TrEMBL record:
This is Cytochrome P450. It comes from Actibacterium naphthalenivorans. GO terms for molecular function: heme binding; iron ion binding; monooxygenase activity; oxidoreductase activity, acting on paired donors, with incorporation or reduction of molecular oxygen. InterPro entries: Cyt_P450 (IPR001128), Cyt_P450_B (IPR002397), Cyt_P450_CS (IPR017972), Cyt_P450_sf (IPR036396). Keywords: Heme, Iron, Metal-binding, Monooxygenase, Oxidoreductase. Belongs to the cytochrome P450 family. PANTHER family: P450, PUTATIVE (EUROFUNG)-RELATED. The keyword 4Fe-4S does not apply. It comes from the Bacteria.
Length: 408
C-alpha cells in the first residue's frame, strides 16, 4: 500500500474554524528543491496565524494542528496534562505492535523513571569518555577523503561516521552498516507504507535477537545495560526494551547525520563562515548551536488528551499537534533577523533538541559528534564548496539533504 500524498478530502472536526484550515508544506515522504528553512519556513511564518489546522500535516497524510511559534511550542512542551507524547511515531503501529519509543513516547509519571534510566549512560561525564574513540572514527573518514578533492558528504561521511559511534555503544558489528542504512532509508524517507513496515519489522526482529543474546552473553554495551537495568525495582518489559533500543537506533542513525549534512551544506555555501571557523576553531561549539537553531531538522507530534485552549484555539481529545522545530528555529518573534546565521548570536537557545521534560537525552553525544566532525574536517580538508551546477534537494519530514556534493 503506497501512501497517497496528493490533495484529498478529509473530514474537518466541528471545533476547527474554516479560516484556520491552511496548507502546510512539510509533508512526510515528499522532496523539494526549495529552501526548507529560509523559504518554506519563512513563508509559513509570514502567511499563517500562530496556530492553524492542516489537512495533511500528520504522517500518513492526515490532519493535525500546526503550532508555528517558539513561545507556543514551549508552552505545549511543558503541558503534559493536556498534550501527550504517546504514539507520535508510526513504527510500532504499522507492524501491529504496541511498544512506544523510550523515553520519547512516554508521559508522567513513568517518563521520569525512563529518563533516569537512560540519562545514566548519556550524561556529559559518560559521553566525555568517548572523546578519543569518536575523534578516531572521524579522523579515519577524513583521512580517507582529503586527497580525493571531492565527496558526496551524506554518503561518504555524514551517515557512516555517526553509525560507527552508534555501533560502538550498542556492541554491534561494523559489517552491518550498509544494512542499517538501507533500513533507515526505508523507515524515515519512504512514503511507501509497505517498505516502511518491512524495514521496521526487520529492525525490531534484529533488536530482539540482540536483546536475547545479551541475556545469555552480557557485555559492556547498551543492549546489556537495558536487559540488566531495573525501573522502580523491576526489570524492563519486552515492549520497553524494544522501545528503548529502537529509539537509540533512530537517533543514532539519522538525526546527527541529518544535522551534519545541513551544517556542512551551509559552510559550503558560505565560505566566510568556513574561514571564520578555520581561523578560530574555538568558535565551533557556538557555530553548531546557531546552525542547529537555523537548520532544525526534526518534527515531533503530540496528541491532545482533554479539551483545552491556547491563544483562543480550541483543542479536543484525539487532535494531533505538529511540534516543528523547523518553524521554531526561524520564528521572527523569537529571534532577531531569524533568517540570518550569526555565530555570535545571543539568544536563549533553540528547540532543536526538544524542550522542557522531553529535552533530548542524547544531545551531549550529538553535540560531541558534530563538534569533532567539524574540527577534523576543517583541519584536514581545504576550503570546500558545492559542486558546480548542483541543485540541492531535501526530504521534507525529517528535513535532510538527499545529497551534498562537495569539491575542494
Amino acid at each position: 500500500m503506497e501512501l497517497d500524498l496528493s490533495p484529498k478530502e478529509v473530514e474537518i472536526p466541528a471545533h476547527v474554524p474554516d479560516e484556520l484550515v491552511l496548507p502546510f508544506p512539510f509533508l512526510f515522504g515528499v522532496k523539494t528543491k526549495q529552501d526548507p528553512f529560509g523559504e518554506l519556513a519563512a513563508q509559513v511564518h509570514a502567511e499563517t496565524p500562530p496556530i492553524f489546522y492542516s489537512k495533511h500535516a500528520y504522517p500518513g497524510g492526515t490532519p493535525a494542528w500546526v503550532v508555528r511559534t517558539a513561545e507556543d511550542l514551549k508552552t505545549i512542551h511543558f503541558d503534559t496534562e493536556n498534550f501527550s507524547n504517546k504514539g507520535f511515531s508510526p513504527f510500532s503501529m504499522i507492524i501491529g505492535e504496541t511498544w512506544n519509543l523510550v523515553p520519547a513516547e512516554s508521559d508522567p509519571p513513568i517518563h521520569a523513571h525512563y529518563r533516569a534510566f537512560v540519562s545514566r549512560v548519556f550524561s556529559p561525564g559518560a559521553i566525555a569518555k568517548l572523546e578519543d574513540k569518536i575523534r578516531g572514527y572521524a579522523r579515519e573518514y577524513v583521512e580517507g577523503l582529503k586527497d580525493k578533492g571531492k565527496c558526496e558528504f551524506m554518503r561518504d561521511f555524514a551517515f557512516e561516521f555517526p553509525i560507527k559511534v552508534f555501533m560502538e555503544l550498542m556492541g554491534l558489528p561494523q559489517s552491518r552498516t550498509k544494512q542499517f542504512l538501507e533500513w533507515e532509508e526505508a523507515m524515515l524517507h519512504s512514503h511507501d507504507l509497505k517498505k516502511m513496515a518491512v524495514a521496521t519489522r526487520s529492525v525490531v526482529d534484529y533488536l530482539r535477537e540482540e536483546l536475547a543474546d545479551r541475556r545469555e552473553n552480557p557485555t559492556d554495551d547498551l543492549f546489556t545495560y537495558g536487559v540488566q537495568a531495573k525501573i522502580d525495582g523491576r526489570e524492563l518489559t519486552d515492549d520497553e526494551l524494544v522501545g528503548f533500543t529502537f529509539n537509540l537506533f533512530i537517533g543514532g542513525l539519522d538525526t546527527v547525520s541529518t544535522q551534519m549534512g545541513l551544517q556542512f551544506l551551509h559552510l559550503a555555501r558560505n565560505p566566510e563562515h568556513q574561514k571564520m571557523l578555520r581561523d578560530d576553531p574555538s568558535l565551533i561549539p557556538a557555530a553548531i548551536d546557531e546552525l542547529m537553531r537555523a537548520y532544525p531538522a526534526v518534527t515531533v507530534f503530540k496528541t491532545v488528551t482533554q479539551p483545552c485552549e491556547l491563544k483562543g484555539v480550541k483543542f479536543m481529545p484525539g487532535d494531533k499537534v505538529v511540534m516543528s522545530a523547523t518553524l521554531a528555529g526561524r520564528d521572527p518573534a523569537e529571534y532577531d533577523a531569524a533568517n540570518e546565521i550569526r555565530f555570535d548570536r545571543e539568544s536563549d537557545g533553540h528547540l532543536s533538541f526538544g524542550y522542557g521534560p522531553h529535552l533530548c537525552l542524547g544531545m551531549h553525544l550529538a553535540r560531541r559528534e558534530m563538534r569533532i566532525a567539524m574540527e577534523e574536517f576543517l583541519r584536514a580538508v581545504p576550503e570546500f564548496r558545492l559542486k558546480d551546477g548542483v541543485e540541492v534537494e531535501h526530504y521534507l519530514g525529517m528535513i535532510q539533504p538527499t545529497a551534498v556534493d562537495l569539491v575542494w
